[in-house]
Amino acid sequence: MIKKQRAFLKWAGGKFKLIEALSAHLPQGDRLVEPFVGAGSVFLNTHYDRYLLCDINHDLINLYKIVQKEPEKYIKAAKALFVPEMNDKEAYYKIRIEFNATKDPFKRSVYFLYMNRHGFNGLCRYNRKGGFNVPFGSYKKPYFPEKEIRAFSEKAQNAEFHCIGYEQAIDMTKAGDVVYCDPPYAPLSSTASFTTYVGSGFSLDDQALLARHARHTAIERGIPVLISNHDIPLTRELYHGARFDTIQVQRNISQKGSGRKKVDELMALYDDSYHSEND
């Protein structure tokens, strides 16, 4: 069995556990385009010649560009913060204040990884003014992902990174591309809108617009688009006309083990066969 490559960031909704099942649904092509790259587990565990990796989180894309170009300089600077005296509430909040105050891309990239590993649950969350506001996580000994950073950097030599929205990312596609969309998931219930990772979140309108964009890209331009989301009546309605498949996943919805129930993941594929089947 091929050993899977872990991402160097913790990420809510990361695809590491699903990668084998998910890969089986990805069409073949020359380049994989990911409009919601997140921690990059799909990028790290697939084998396309090239990658176009996008996200609207400026700090994330900035970090990836730095790791791509200067891995050793980055590792040295980031590692210096993974020491016992920095695994402390006061130290964490001091770094968070500095992160929110600085515009320096390198400093922000170093602090971003520190907060990702020392903050609560590896969350990435900003307030309305754009300030990072995840509380301290109180972990015994946060792991410094040196091997994972090097692996990411090596693989990133075949990737391009852009801080843009999903529409622009999909518009950058060309013949031979395959698109994989992993948007913030539709809420399982009206109260569970835990999708506000960046800025104002991803509304149901956004979900519908993404579906429409995917459909048009497949029909009019012949570029296949795969979207993953919760398998619920709402998403099946949103992605009407796509080819559906489901994969099972263990989701950590509640702190108690008993509350961790399986929620199927929907794989919705739009490709050229969409047109003929849906005329």
Structure overview:
The protein is built from 11 helices and 7 strands. The chain has helices at residues 19-23, 41-44, 58-69, 71-79, 89-101, 105-118, 146-155, 166-171, 204-221, 233-238, 273-278, and strands spanning 31-34, 50-54, 159-162, 177-181, 225-230, 243-247, 265-270. The protein has a 7-stranded mixed beta sheet with strand order 3-2-1-4-5-7-6. It is globular and about 55 Å long. Mean pLDDT is 90; it is low at 193-200.
Quick overview of this protein structure:
It contains 11 helices and 7 strands.
Order of helices and strands: HEHEHHHHHEHEHEHEEH
**Total strands:** 7
Major sheet strand order: 3-2-1-4-5-7-6
Low-confidence segments, given as residue ranges, are: 193-200
Query: In angstroms, what separates the terminal alpha carbons?
Result: 42 Å
The count of helical stretches stands at 11
The largest pleated sheet is described as: 7 strands, mixed
Q: How would you name the CATH homologous superfamily of the largest domain?
A: Vaccinia Virus protein VP39
Judged by helices, strands and strand pairing, the structural class is alpha/beta
- How many structurally independent domains? 2
The CATH level-2 architecture of the largest domain is identified as 3-Layer(aba) Sandwich
Calculate Rg over CA atoms: 19 Å
CATH fold group of the largest domain: Rossmann fold
Mean pLDDT: 90
Helix proportion of residues, in percent? 25-40%
Strand content is: 5-15%
